[in-house]
From TrEMBL:
Its cofactor is FAD. Binds 1 FAD per subunit. Pfam families: Pyr_redox_2 (PF07992). This is Thioredoxin reductase. The keyword Hydrolase does not apply.
């Protein structure tokens, strides 16, 4: 068994930002980047996208995969040890914290590593609907992030659709209204889940239409490699009637699943499963355990906000270690 001062679990912008800060502080961090953890390649959610145009420092945009490779290199440059394994079990009941990887977690087995401080940066996954056509047109018209993808030319002055009835759906629809000719929000029930203020704003928006009791049943588009979606089949759930509508963009806003499996019995989570952190810090409900990125942020969910909280977690962990592990009150 090996002991480290600090271990980072995750491999997105939050994890690598924490790694860059901690390795520059000479704390010799170890980062477990996962081996297809939660179904996503090491590097996290950005490895599933093409161009990232809103990460500062890249005026011409940067490929998601390339951005994550650069972050990984920067972590390693200052001495972070990156291990391509998934942490499958974590014992936070006492310090040093213990962890096991998925190849080494048989009952009774020794932990692979112990650590004085742990940073949880396991991210989140946008929920998908698995509609017919979804796989074909994913990122060719379908997206789970309007703020990330909405500004691309294929959506300009085109009819766009959003699925969902929560605050994200309302926010994304109004954001997309800047680009699309119209934005139609499909809500599966007869009411919005969004907060009153957001719902009122959406319903009053001149370019947004809300269709209640309506679900999408198929995505239709060009039948060629990298073809774009052009239409959507929708169904009125009260009458059962289906129709095919023009649609050049489809944005899912049906919720995210934070990757909390490692800690859900151990750390305080909110009602949606996100790790609760003390506002303005990365402190969790256990001293010495810090959380950053999308696993603790259901509101902003951006690469740059994840990176920002990764920096916060590194500085909090550094202080905690410097002060002998007694530096913060837990939640
Ligand atoms: P994530 O990126 O979620 O990565 C966490 C990773 O950690 C996991 O994917 C997995 O590889 C690893 N991991 C998880 N569990 C374990 C474990 N137990 N052991 C080891 N490793 C583990 N944001 C923008 O700012 N701009 C964009 O243009 C943009 N485009 C996007 C496009 C798409 C298609 C998607 C899905 C998201 C996009 N986002 C964009 C959002 C952005 O990707 C996320 O906000 C950001 O990646 C979250 O970073 P994170 O560090 O919290 O972790
Ligand atoms: P929510 O879980 O609040 O809403 C998800 C929406 O998707 C619901 O309307 C749900 O319908 C719908 N949905 C789920 N599954 C399906 C499906 N299979 N088919 C069709 N529709 C489906 O997620 P959000 O991401 O909107 O919000 C998460 C949290 O973040 C909330 O607490 C929210 O308040 C907060 N937030 C706040 C913002 C703000 O204040 N500006 C902005 C963004 C998020 P149903 O209602 O029927 O369950």
């Amino acid at each position: 068994m090996v002991h480290s001062k600090v271990v980072i679990i995750g491999s997105g912008p939050a994890a690598h930002t924490a790694a860059i800060y901690l390795s520059r502080a000479e704390l010799e961090p170890v980062l477990y980047e996962g081996m297809l953890a939660n179904g996503t390649a090491a590097g996290g959610q950005l490895t599933t996208t093409t161009d990232v145009e809103n990460f500062p420092g890249f005026p011409d945009g940067v490929g998601g995969q390339e951005l994550m490779e650069k972050m990984r290199k920067q972590s390693e440059r200052f001495g972070t040890e990156v291990i391509t394994e998934t942490i499958s079990k974590l014992d936070l009941s006492q310090r040093p914290f213990k962890m096991w990887t998925e190849w080494n977690d048989a009952p009774g087995s020794e932990p692979v590593r112990t650590a004085d401080a742990v940073i949880i940066a396991t991210g989140a996954n946008a929920r998908r609907l698995n509609l017919p056509g979804e796989e074909t047109y994913w990122q060719n018209g379908i997206s789970a992030c309007a703020v990330c993808d909405g500004a691309v030319p294929i959506f300009r002055n085109k009819p766009l659709y959003v699925i969902g009835g929560g605050d994200s759906a309302a926010e994304e629809a109004m954001f997309l209204a800047k680009y699309g000719s119209t934005v139609t929000v499909l809500v599966r029930r007869d009411k919005l889940r969004a907060s009153k203020v957001m719902a009122d704003r959406l319903l009053a928006h001149p370019k947004c239409v809300v269709r209640f009791n309506t679900v999408a049943t198929e995505v239709i588009g060009e039948n060629k490699p990298n073809g774009l979606m052009t239409h959507l089949r929708v169904k009125d759930t009260t009458s059962g009637q289906e129709e095919i509508v023009d649609a050049n963009g489809l944005f899912y806003a049906v919720g995210h699943d934070p990757a909390n499996a490692l800690v859900k019995e151990q750390l305080k989570l909110d009602e949606d499963g996100y790790i609760v952190t003390q506002p303005g810090t990365s402190y969790t409900s256990i001293e010495g355990v810090f959380a950053c990125g999308d696993v603790q942020d259901k509101r902003y969910r951006q690469a740059i906000t994840s990176a920002g909280t990764g920096c916060v977690a590194a500085l909090d962990a550094e202080k905690f270690i410097a002060e002998g592990g007694e530096s913060h009150a837990s939640l």
